[in-house]
Amino acid sequence: MGARVSQLEAENAALMQQLEAARETLGALVVGGDEQEGGGEGERRRRRREKIDRSYFQSYSGFGIHREMLADNARTCSYRTGLEGSPALLRGSAVLDVGCGTGVLSLFAARAGARKVYAVDGSAEIAEVARDNVERNGFAGAVEVIQGRMEGVSLPEKVDVIVSEWMGYCLLYESMLQSVLHARDRFLKPGGAVLPDIATMWVAGIAPEALGLNFWRDVHGLDMSAVAEREERRSRGTSRVASVKPGDVVTTSQRFLRLDLCTCTEADLSFTADFDLTCPSRHRPVACSGLALWFDTEFSARFCGQPVNLTTSPFAQETHWVQTLLFLNETVFLQGEGAKAGTGKPAVSGGAGFLGSTHRPAQGLRGSLQVTQGKQDHRALEVILQYAPYSGEERGPTGVVRYEV
Length: 405
Ligand SMILES: C[S@@+](CC[C@H](N)C(=O)[O-])C[C@H]1O[C@@H](n2cnc3c(N)ncnc32)[C@H](O)[C@@H]1O
Description:
Layout: H1 2-31, H2 33-36, H3 41-59, H4 64-71, H5 73-84, H6 87-90, E1 94-98, H7 104-111, E2 116-121, H8 124-136, E3 143-147, E4 159-163, H9 177-187, E5 188-195, E6 198-206, H10 225-235, E7 239-242, E8 249-260, E9 271-278, E10 286-299, E11 308-311, E12 323-334, E13 364-373, E14 381-391, E15 394-395, E16 399-404
Parallel strand pairs: 1-2, 1-4, 2-3, 4-5
Antiparallel strand pairs: 6-8, 6-10, 7-12, 9-13, 10-11, 10-12, 13-14, 14-15, 14-16
Helix pairs in contact: 1-3, 5-7
Bound molecules: S-adenosylmethionine.
Residues 57, 60, 69-70, 99-102, 104-105, 120-123, 126, 149-151, 165, 176, 179 line the site of S-adenosylmethionine (SAM).
């Protein structure tokens, strides 16, 4: 049922986009296009951003997406504990909920004793829903729903607490954090709390099986591994959002970004970070065909009575964010330090003798991740991955891949 609802919503969103595109084309035909409207490159960029934002807010007008978020227990319980477990912070406070959706976080804040909650959402339909939810739960006196984009809203007072669930896939997808930082700089009292207050990003190497290739090895008793081989080849250099099983993580995990949401700036959201992942398997080489990225957000003891960490790690309860997978240009073979190079049983036959090949597994994978906002779509992400297998001082061939996430 949930999958059907999501599918219908995806179809609806696609139809809305087509309608939007048709409207734009028609508009351009009638007035003679961008140039005759007096638009230069800057104007075109502005209109493109507006169009993307319209379909972004439209995507939050459906109910399936809100149901999916509310039903994600790891997510919703973390916010509930962060807010309702902090009565000393919330009692008598003024709170701003950036992107209130159904109003769930505003209602948690009100239940925790907030004097006033400003619940802001840019999606007209969902703001109306939030208003009804607030009323039916008896908090119309405490929670004020404001329909509008955060950047254009004004408030009658500064607030003690800002709460927001702004995280997208790979943490920064959707670029909603920028709106939260903007609100923080305009409306938070000095020393006020941002909930959650810490965000971190993590990386680890994954086996090709993370693609779910085992499915093809036995389909009703038939060997369809020919599909698995093609699927693995097709995945090279691509990215996807998918759930990784703990057993498919083949290297150490490493934190590569930490943001303090009380002090970070928009500039911190574009960054380059190094990683160095080693292989715990000493007995046999393991195949590493990509990296999994995930994030944590923390309601830390700095503000919260019951600190809680909302993690999207493959080693924890699955969330609707699952993980973001970046596949390398080729599979790299790794074997932990202490193993004699070349003594492991080759995982596949053949292979050249370079470091990281099946006959010469490397001890680890080193590289960097450069993350920036998408150039065409400011709500998307561009990730450039550089990587090279290594053993001690020796380095294998370097790979570079650019992904649009
Ligand atoms: C991820 S949802 C979270 C909804 C709700 N807070 C919850 O936890 O279930 C993000 C919401 O923020 C809204 N939003 C995103 N950017 C916004 C902005 N700049 N101004 C106002 N609302 C925004 C979206 O319309 C969407 O409803």
